[in-house]
Specification:
The protein is of the alpha/beta class and 244 residues long. It has one domain (4-240): 3-Layer(aba) Sandwich (Rossmann fold), CATH 3.40.50. 38% of the residues lie in helices and 12% in strands. It contains ten helices and five strands. It has helices spanning 16-24, 37-42, 51-57, 64-71, 111-121, 132-144, 155-160, 162-173, 196-199, 221-237; strands at 4-10, 29-33, 80-86, 102-108, 152-154. The chain has a five-stranded parallel sheet. Helix 5 crosses helix 10 (221-237) and helix 6 runs parallel beside helix 10 (221-237). It is globular, with a radius of gyration of 17 Å. 37% of the residues are buried.
């Protein structure tokens, strides 16, 4: 069966797991939850929640060459292979030809919302933890590989108009629209990574997108020093943003 591989590159706290739920609810799709995370975690001393449990549960995802082979693969009985990636998890040794076999897209969100949400789970979070510098770097990498500029979608746009934004995303990725993407049953998934208990509590209660928040969050003092730089990177990515 011909397979369309979709690499969705996000930063944390960008409704990326809800987006994965949306694609997984399609009958023609199979998803892979942050395939690059275990290897990235193993190569960094960062004290992420559940670090040891994640590494123990994902021993099969630590070899770079095997990861690249599987990322270029085709799941059985599925015509869409949706890969949920965090941009800052891409290590130099996991860059490879598999990327040319995917259709890429970026998921972004207002930096003040990202920093507030991220700091609540990981108080030491800084610029590199937002994924924004890595998304901009990845944008340049894809261009150097001769790949088209990826469509960029903003999380708040999706929450405000789920059907319109997802239709536009499907069109940009050249895959058929499916109304099943608008809702899903609550609860955990077998496809969720071993980090789900520390990060997925809210998405496990969800059954769809929205509504968007209408407040202006107060960025914690520890993150305020990087807010302006985050905003500059976000604005650069938004040059490719899908707007209705």
């Amino acid at each position: 069966m011909p397979c369309t591989r979709i690499a969705m590159w996000s930063g944390p706290r960008n409704i990326s797991t809800a987006m994965m739920r949306s694609w997984e609810h399609r009958a023609d799709a199979q998803v892979w939850d942050e395939p690059l995370y275990p290897r990235w975690l193993s190569r960094n001393s960062i004290a992420h929640p559940g670090r040891e449990e994640v590494l123990q549960a994902h021993q099969e995802d630590l070899d770079a060459e095997d990861l690249k082979r599987r990322l270029a693969g085709s799941p059985p009985e599925s015509s869409i292979f949706y890969q949920k990636h965090m941009a800052h998890h891409l290590c130099p040794d996991t860059v490879g030809d598999w990327m040319a076999k995917c259709r890429h897209a970026f998921l972004v969100r207002r930096p003040d919302r990202v920093l507030c949400s991220l700091a609540a789970r990981y108080p030491e979070a800084g610029l590199e933890d937002t994924g924004l510098p890595q998304q901009v770097g990845l944008l340049n990498l894809l261009d150097s590989m001769g790949l088209p500029a990826p469509p960029v979608i903003d999380a708040d746009d999706v929450l405000s108009a789920p059907e319109s934004m997802l239709r536009a995303l499907c069109d940009a990725l050249q895959v058929p629209w499916d109304r099943a993407m608008l809702s899903w049953p609550p609860g955990p998934r077998v496809s969720d990574g071993a980090w789900a208990p520390w990060w997925y509590d809210k998405v496990e209660t969800s059954t769809g997108f929205g509504p968007p928040r209408d407040d202006t969050p107060e960025v914690p003092q520890a993150q305020q020093t990087v807010l302006a730089e985050c905003q500059q990177l976000y604005d650069q990515l938004c040059e490719f943003r899908i707007r209705l």
